[in-house]
C-alpha cells in the first residue's frame, strides 16, 4: 500500500488508472488536464473540499468520482 | 397574498420561471433561450467528467457569463443515498447550498419515490442545504416535506418531459391551500404557454420547465412565450379573477334603452 516509489491503482470514474505512490489529488487533476474550478471530487464516497486537493495523498485502491455540472432539468 | 417576488430561503429571484439547461440543440440556442425566458435561476445536472474529451466549450462558461444562479439537481438518482451523494458533489462543484432534489421511483414515469425523497430531504436539510424537492401532486407529502425543512415544494404537473400540462388541478389547489409559508413551484409537465399561465393563475409561486422550451420548434420564441405566460398568469392571480357564473350578466346598462 503506497510504498514510496511504488505504483498504486486508482479507480477514476470507473476506469482503472495507475499512478506513482505519493500522488496528490491536485497532481492527478493536473495529469488528467482537468481544471479544478467547477469540479467536485468524491474519494471513497466522501467529497474532498477543493482547498484540500494539494494535501490529499491518494492511496492504492482509492475510488474517485470526478464530476462537473452539465445541462439538465 | 403571496409575495410579489419568488423568494427562496430569503433570496428574491428576478423571475418566477426557473429554466432547465438540458436538451438544447446547441449552446448558442440555449444562451439565447435563457436570455429570452428572463429566468435568473437555472438547473444543472451533476455528471462524471468525460476523461477522453477535455477542453471543449462548456455550458458553465455560458451560465457564468449570464450570471445565472445555478440549481444543481439530483436527476437520475433512484435512492436517497445516491441523491445525497450527488447533492454533496453538486454543492462542491456549484459552490451553492441549493439543490433540486429528485429521488426517482420509476423509470417509465420518472415519478418520485417519495419515501426516499423525504429521507434525503431530512439528511440534506441537516447538512445545511436549501432543498427544493421534486415531488408528487400530493398534499400530504408536500406537508411532510415542508415540515422536514424543505425550502419549497415542487409538485409535478405531469410526468417529466411529457408536455401534458397540469393533469390534476384539484390536487394542486389542495397543495396551494395547505402550503402557504414556502413557495409552491410546479416542476415538470408544462407543454406550452397556457399550461404555465394556468399554474400561475392558480397562485403557484413559480414554474420550473426544461423540455417545453428546449424541445420547442423555436426554443428562443417559446422561451419568450413562457416569460409572458408566467407574467400574465401572475398578474391575473394578483388582480383577482371574477367568479364563474352559470348565466349571463349584461355588460351594458340595462336602463335607458330606447
Description:
- The complex is a heterodimer of chains A (73) and B (258).
- Helix content of chain A is 10%, strand content 40%.
- Chain A has a domain at 1-48.
- A five-stranded mixed β-sheet of chain A has the order 2-1-5-3-4, with no helix packed on it.
- Chain A is built from one helix and five strands.
- With 258 residues, chain B is α/β, with parallel strands linked by helices.
- Chain B has a single domain, classed as Aldolase class I (TIM Barrel, Alpha-Beta Barrel).
- In chain B, 39% of the residues lie in helices and 15% in strands.
- Chain B has nine helices and ten strands.
- Chain B has helices spanning 27-37, 59-65, 80-94, 114-126, 139-147, 169-178, 193-202, 211-214, 219-239; strands at residues 7-8, 11-12, 17-19, 41-48, 69-72, 98-101, 130-135, 154-155, 185-187, 206-209.
- In chain B, helix 1 (27-37) links the parallel strand 3 and strand 4.
- The mean pLDDT of chain B is 95.
- Strand 5 (63-71) of chain A pairs antiparallel with strand 4 (41-48) of chain B, so a sheet runs across the interface.
Summarize this structure as a short list of keywords or feature phrases:
heterodimer; A: mainly beta; globular; B: 258 residues; TIM Barrel; five-stranded parallel sheet; 10 strands
